[in-house]
Amino acid sequence: MQLHVVSHPLVEHKLTVLRDKNTPSNTFRELVSELVMLEAYEATQDLIVEDHPIETPVAPMVGKKLAKPRPMVVPILRAGLGMLDGMTRLLPTAEVGFLGMKRDENTLDIITYANRLPEDLTGRQCFLLDPMLATGGTLVAAIHYLAERGARDITAIDIIAAPEGLKRLEKEVRPDIDFKVVVCGVDEKLNDKSYIVPGLGDAGDRLYGVID
Ligand code: URA
Fold it and tell me: Is 196 in the pocket of ligand 1 (CB under 6 A)?
């Protein structure tokens, strides 16, 4: 696994405002989009391009365009949806799939309750979006879900990670998967409710408000 922590004064500034409990949902959503764009710039560094001949007003030249098949962006519901806008602003030609995953309260297994993904992801560069990499359970399950469909090049873009989740990914993700994690920050630890400390609270609630 490769871990990339995006280090930039703008990221530090925006992440601090995002963490602040007094930041309202509309500002929170805007900041998530901006942070994802900054992360996506680095996360897409290995995108495959191919030669593309064009003519400028002055002369012919061979430029570069993203190669086919198109990259696949997969937000994990619900909180990952808040990252989709930022990602597709940078990568408008990507195809978008969706993955809904949650923990079964009785068995504690991760179950997939929704998916809209191509059956065959062979040769696709895949980008999973989930703001909080906490225990890592959902992300491990999501990576293996994509891998069962043939994906071998998977990048997870998260806003904040906990060391516990990163360790779990290192241990549990299949070794044949080329796997990268891009984050804005790695925090101290998880608390006894599996929230990241200091973190930013429940990302889904902060994006979309709490449903009683
Ligand atoms: N999910 C969240 O939304 N926040 C956390 O701190 C951990 C998991």
Answer: yes
